[in-house]
Amino acid sequence: MANFPQGFLWGGATAANQCEGGYNEGGKGLGVPDIMTGGTVSEPRHITDGILEGRHYPSHEAVDMYHHYLDDIKLFGEMGFKCYRMSINWSRIFPQGDETEPNQAGIEFYRRVFEACREQGIEPMVTLSHYELPYGLSKNYGGWKNPKLIDFFLNYSRTVMTEYKGLVKYWLTFNEINCLLMGGFGGVMGGGMVPEGLEDVPMTFGACDWDDPQARFDALHNQFLASAKCVVMAHEIDPANKVGCMIAGNATYPHTCNPADVLKAQREQREHNFYCGDVQVRGAYPAWAPSVWKREGVTIEVSDEDAATLKAGTVDFYSFSYYMSATASADPKASEGGNIFGGAGNPYLEKSDWGWAIDPEGLKYYLEEVYDRYQIPLMIVENGLGAVDEVEPDGSIHDPYRIDYLRRHIQQMDEAIADGVDLMGYTMWGCIDLVSASTGEMKKRYGFIYVDKDNDGNGTLERSRKDSFYWYKKVIESNGADLS
């Protein structure tokens, strides 16, 4: 017998900048992703100063859900989704980000999306900021390092929460908020802090010559304050609203039983997962936060007013993405062949086509570690396998590798629930093929639904059901009992 509770929120997840398209339609302004080129696993995406001629920007069309949303949501309904985690593109509501009045065409677009979800019996879960900062706020204010963005975010959040009262009750404030702890990608995507004075910059993960740690930690502090104020506001607008944080989850193991490796794994685990979790769930920075600031060479001033704000605006649930685990080693020579988060390779695990360690047991470990710490409902809002899918001559798409990946992760979720974890839902990432955030590719496919489009933007955009589509439908129908 499966242990999934009645009302478990089975579904899928996307982000507007990776699936929506229509980047200059319906009054939408530019977002930071709209100035990011495509890339591959070997050639990084580039950030450009505005839109350069002759370059391919995947977000401009993405998979064109802007025009296909009705059919796509019907496919989600056919699978039996209970929940669809999606995002609102901020610049579709406020084109520059700092306007006082919203773009009405954007308001009406998302109203139609949410109504379509409701018609299919699907509960929308909306991320307010999913790597989609309006470019105007980056260009004119420097992104989230500027505290003025707190009020712009609250005006945007108040607008959509008021407009969609009764249509949306689950909200996430900032996607993978802890990515701001990483240089390069984190500063740009998480903080909207585009390198100034540089026309064409390759995207990096980790330290780079244009990264500014002080700006990243300031931006994160501003997001903490914005999130906390948003939680309070959401409850005032509608007491039925539930607001969650969203963390890029990563289980970290010591590479060996050397105490130095164990201590490094402990440090990386708590800093990656709990630095942001403690602020958003407990309402205060952890006791060891000043040691992080000292090591990073940054100064964070937490005023009495800030402390009160953080304490008052704790989240209702903790959501996270989980794709992989990592191992930590104190030996610099061992820290090769790890994951996107760095670290040493794990010889006990297989890897995806993109080098991400596949570790279902790590999901159970992570769930139990987080629940032991916070004791509030958890939700997995991203988990999936990026892979190369082939279309057969008859149009069928066989993806047993994806079914196996999901089956093994769902089994570990079931075991965690049996161990007492309060898990409220699971939305598999990229339920329809979309643009990869890390590489800008279409070739890296996650979905149950295939979209005919390639890395260069060519294709018919036709939608096709993969084998995993029918498998997941059966999983939902059985509430996780039938994983065959």
Question: What's the number of structural domains?
Answer: 1
| Poorly predicted spans | none
Task: Please state the average pLDDT score.
Answer: 96
Assembly context of the chains? single chain
What helical percentage do the residues reach? Answer: 25-40%
Per DSSP E runs of 2 or more residues, the count of β-strands stands at 14
Strand coverage percent = 15-25%
Sketch the topology as an H/E string, one letter per element: EHEHEHHEHHEHEHEHHHEEEHEHEEEH
Q: Which CATH architecture would you pick?
A: Alpha-Beta Barrel
Q: Strand order, main sheet: write it out.
A: 1-3-4-5-7-8-11-12
Q: Please give the radius of gyration in angstroms.
A: 21 Å
* CATH fold-type name: TIM Barrel
GO molecular function: beta-glucosidase activity
Keywords: Glycosidase, Hydrolase
Pfam families: Glyco_hydro_1
GO biological process, one term: carbohydrate catabolic process
